[in-house]
Design brief:
Length: 206
């Protein structure tokens, strides 16, 4: 249905984009707004998932990924990496100022995950011990970000979002960085609409 939504040589019709929830809500909207303003006949579909969409199976036309593409027949462009850090609201940051990570963890005020172990695993890979107690837990990245903004606790946040929102970095030397790619199937490059969206995402995320 997406392939038949418009002629191949026109920037019109449906393009399906897959990305994480944080990218889809916090990062991509300005890029997509510019696209639809310039190409009003475009129809954008946004799939928010932290799972890797299968481009070969046409789960999406374009994907923003934090894992390198392994499949053949894909076109991938590396974009700006995702940089994360520990952030808190300005009010909470004043209470936590000057503490190292063990001291921060001991406060019990870190935003954690509920059943997902990704955060704990990531901390261990950095040589840090996950806190035994967390003030707020959710496996939803957007819920964690909302809790940080509200001052419930401190937590992991993309640097670009934390700086934009006026949140305060707690440990400036703690900045894990993850490479990112924009990916599409090589067949999609023959469609003007998909190629246009792909190029815009690469430019906007670089």
């Amino acid at each position: 249905a997406r392939l038949a939504s418009a002629a191949a040589d026109t920037v019109a019709g449906s393009v399906r984009i897959s990305c994480s929830r944080v990218y889809g809500v916090e990062i991509l909207p300005p890029i997509l707004a510019t696209l639809t303003a310039r190409w009003p006949a475009l129809e954008l579909e946004l799939v928010l998932t932290n799972d890797v969409s299968n481009i070969l199976r046409r789960d999406a036309d374009i994907a923003v990924r934090l894992t390198p593409p392994q499949q053949e027949a894909l076109i991938a462009r590396k974009v700006a990496p995702m940089r994360v850090g520990l952030f808190a609201s300005p009010t909470l940051a004043k209470r936590l100022e000057g503490r190292d990570f063990p001291a921060l963890a001991a406060t019990g005020l870190m935003i954690g995950q509920d059943r997902d172990e990704t955060l704990a695993t990531g901390l261990r890979q950095l040589g840090l011990t996950p806190p035994q107690r967390t003030v707020f837990r959710s496996d939803d990245d957007l819920a964690q970000l909302a809790a940080i903004r509200a001052g419930i606790g401190f937590g992991i946040c993309q640097v670009v979002i934390g700086d934009r929102e006026g949140l305060v970095r707690l440990l400036s030397d703690l900045t894990p960085t993850y490479p990112a790619w924009v990916v599409m199937h090589e067949d999609q490059s023959r469609l003007a609409r998909t190629r246009t969206v792909f190029d815009a995402l690469v430019a906007g995320l670089t």
